[in-house]
């Protein structure tokens, strides 16, 4: 029943945190759930929490991002959830640009701008023509 994990690590005095980072990295690689952290007040993905992508360059799947505060980590998760919800919606179908009469639209706009170089309000007929 867990949707995501927010790991908040507050290092004790004179302790690095490498062990915690290693555990989080191992969990991140194996988990299909999103994991974010507040880790040593650092932003981005610390080297220990980074799983290289296939090309070995940037952070890949399984990396655990670290934020300066728990609020920032939760905000990042919320944005990811919002994006996933948006991406799962039906956004219609792609229309091939050859179906559009862009030349007619450009001609209309040019003719309007010749009469009113700073722009003008289009008539209802012009709007319908442009949007058709």
UniProtKB/TrEMBL annotation:
<dbReference type="GO" id="GO:0016740">
    <property type="term" value="F:transferase activity"/>
</dbReference>
<keyword id="KW-0808">Transferase</keyword>
<dbReference type="InterPro" id="IPR016102">
    <property type="entry name" value="Succinyl-CoA_synth-like"/>
</dbReference>
<protein>
    <submittedName>
        <fullName>GNAT family N-acetyltransferase</fullName>
    </submittedName>
</protein>
